[in-house]
Design brief:
Distance between the termini: 35 Å
Oligomer: single chain
Number of helices: 6
Radius of gyration: 21 Å
Strand content: under 5%
Largest sheet: none
């Protein structure tokens, strides 16, 4: 199995964070060993006493399931949309704060920004 590019790795990792609990225990373990521990297919195969192809199939099935869950539930897409909106709001607040001479109003805008940024935590 070829190594995934960074964007794919980040996507699979995010999907795993959201939907990993919906996978079987074995699928979770294989995903963690491959993606988090960076073990090779051969090393994972040895760990489980299965073939390298068995590990490959387990990974592909788990990744496919994670993608299906996202297609149906869309939680990651909603998170990304929210993060984008928060970044836009932050920019607007910053530009408003810079243009407002009333220090009290500027402080209130920064307070609002702080509340919005807590949503990302």
């Amino acid at each position: 199995m070829e190594r995934l590019n960074m964007e794919s790795i980040e996507k699979i990792s995010l999907l795993y964070d959201f939907y990993g609990r919906l996978l079987t225990e074995k699928q979770r373990q294989v995903m963690e060993l491959y993606h988090e521990e960076n073990l090779s297919l051969a090393e994972i195969a040895e760990e489980f006493g299965i073939s390298r192809q068995g590990v490959h199939d387990t990974l592909k099935k788990a990744e496919h399931l994670l993608t299906e869950y996202e297609d149906k539930l869309g939680l990651v897409a909603k998170l990304m949309k929210s993060r984008h909106a928060i970044a836009e709001i932050d920019g607007i607040i910053d530009s408003l704060t810079a243009s407002i001479e009333d220090k009290e109003a500027a402080a209130k805008l920064q307070e609002v920004k702080g509340i919005i940024n807590k949503l990302e935590e």
